[in-house]
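Handout, section B. The chain below has 209 residues.
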Amino acid sequence: MVTHLILIELSAVFDTVDHETLCNMMEESFGVASNALEWITSYLNHHSQRVTIRTSTSDAFALDQGVPLGSCLGPVMFTQHCSPIFSATNVHGKVGHGYADDHQAYSGCDPVYIASETVSIEPYVRDIKSWMRNMKLKVNDSKTEYILIGIPHQLAKCSQSPITIGDSVIPPSNHVRNPGPTLTSICLWSDTSRSNAFTILYNISKMRK
């Protein structure tokens, strides 16, 4: 068994979230209503922006889209805004994960089926990009990555071909950042990993007592 992991990166996502769409989704999909919904609507709508160049400053203008970058609520709101993407991922037989502007999808298969699994990535990303366009979002094609993860003798049976995403040809990577930890294609326990795992299991066993 090998795992196919694709990592999709979005462009300028926090600036393009439509406030009305987000509030409707929070009400219909997450049950946010009444005072809580009014508070969130007020939080989103009462923002303005100015542009300053040297000593000149423009008039303030209202921001009718976007969630505040660098805030606590911004990434959470954006994740809720993109929540339908996980249903689209399931339709393609993949499992999705995401937070803020980082989205990943993975699936496992026998090395014998790796060619058809690789081919399935392109229609999956096309559907995601189509949904993103409808939501006024954009996939950064050139920064999309994919990687095969498995033990060496299973990877040796796989033919690893590039995929085409928009105008970009994406070759399989040997390692990817996901975000935070770096994942490598070869899945092996190092001495350090074994030591850390045993330490964690030992501490868990003490907690049970």
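Note. The two ends are 36 Å apart (CA to CA). Compare this with the example in section A.
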